[in-house]
Amino acid sequence: MATFAERLEEALKDKGWSARQAQREMKRTHPDLAITHAYISGLRRGKRTNPSTEVVIALAQLFDVSVSWLLGEDPPPPQLSAEDQQRHQTVREGLAELGVQNIAERMVGLSPLSLEAIEKMVEAMRQAEQLHGNTDVQ
């Protein structure tokens, strides 16, 4: 059975997030819950071992996993293929380079079908604004 720290480490790794990135997202999704990146890091390393029920639930929601999985009781969720992981990373890096880090972070974990839909929507917006073929950043 995995520990809470091991599962939190796995969830962070699957999202490609640091403790700081997780704290930023937690602040956005759970603004009433005051949690620092240092606290998340302590939980991740097993130095902090008694998170409140509220924190465990918020982290499970943040990582889209069950509380029981996060507590080490369920088997791990299915993993993306290496190809899908590479595609996600390429999309995140490309978006980050364009100054849209928040959007790139929110795309982590989306299925290949969803990523393709986003790509098509962006292309449709570019066509609507008559930006055909012009990919230069202004």
From TrEMBL:
Residues 35-70 form the HTH cro/C1-type domain. SUPFAM superfamilies: lambda repressor-like DNA-binding domains (SSF47413). InterPro entries: Cro/C1-type_HTH, Lambda_DNA-bd_dom_sf. SMART domains: HTH_XRE (SM00530). It comes from the Bacteria. PROSITE patterns: HTH_CROC1. GO terms for molecular function: DNA binding. It holds the Pfam family HTH_3. Gene3D superfamilies: lambda repressor-like DNA-binding domains. This is Transcriptional regulator with XRE-family HTH domain. The lineage of its organism: Bacteria, Bacillati, Actinomycetota, Actinomycetes, Streptosporangiales.
